[in-house]
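Slide 14.
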Amino acid sequence: MSETFQRPIAARVRQRLTEQPRLMQILAGPRQVGKTTLISQVLGERPLASFRMIAADPTALPEALTSALLNLPNVHTPPSASWLQQQWLEAAEAARTWSASPQETSLATRLPFVLVIDEIQKVDQWSSLVKGFWDADRARGTPMHVVLLGSAPLLMQQGLSESLTGRYELIRMAQWSYAEMNEAFGLTLDEYIHFGGYPGSAPLVTDESRWRDYVRHAIIDPSIEKDVLAMTRIDKPALLRQLFELGCSYSGQILSLDKVSGMLGKGHTLTLADNLTRLSQAGLLTGLHKYAGQVVRQRSSPPKFQVHDNGLMTALSSYGFEEARADRSHWGRQVESLVGTHLLNTADADTKLFFWRERDKEVDFVIEHRGRLAAVEVKLASGSSTSAGLHEFCKRHPDAKPWLVGSESLPLGEFLQQPAPYWTR
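Slide 15: predicted structure.
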């Protein structure tokens, strides 16, 4: 990996931190997608006196990042409210000093001070504490940006909705795209289809045993055990793990929760639906609804399982890279799943993703963006350049844009270059 590679989203973070502070910035996303690395890269471009980065759990940081750039506490027990208050007050004082110091730039263009708090969810009652500190600073006119990061998406979402409504902007980070993995690590399209977009796993793809071990123990296990089971009440934790594993193996396929319940030998359809929601919030596995134009009908339809990254699907399967490519049926499912992960991870807040099926007619994915529709069918083999499902859907929805991914007019690699909303234009 090039040491200078930055994800394109770094430009958005950098721009936000040059503006005058108005709202907190929340860098949110699943584990192991590079949130800490990205903010460290952005801070590394600034004068040392213009920022402070602290971590409520320094042991969670990569060793390479525990440098002089980071103001790390000696945390042997969960950090307290008094620790957070002390760090915040020291940063606020540093912000006032920085603002008043002579700088080469004009007053209008000088960089505001930045406080970054990583692993914020480790602090008990963090959201109410942050709310109080932030409101007090706004009243005093403290010239300081605040950026919050956390590796527990569920707890972050809960804290944001409980105390910080109206005080923050969300910058979402998902697993890496094909373009990012190709530029940073040289992954080919076929490798990306199989291994997915977790940057920490990329150097291990030549040793699949090590790669699987990394994905299972550095991503899947902590995501389930720390982000889902430890942060929210789950009545049947074993059932959640079984649902995740089954959903990964069936990514890209439609299964009713009643059928899933039967396959797992359990009779808890409502519990399965709730668990699927939790897995989706953790950035692992989502159940797509059928597009029906009516919310009630969408939610009552059997879900289409969709992983957030193909690496999750592969890590729990028995297929090696060459075996997967040789089995055209399995490879086709991986390709369809990849299209789903791309759409899911590039959808913005105004974009929703569905599937569609009526009798024997089906469309793999339906994108809805601000009232505009696109129908996406994945072409898995050579042959017809048309799709009966696409034709029927567009007949019922004449304004929908039809796309046949994998056709001569839209190769997979070309499709992966554009985000989900693009295809509705």
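Speaker note: The first helix runs from residue 9 to 16.
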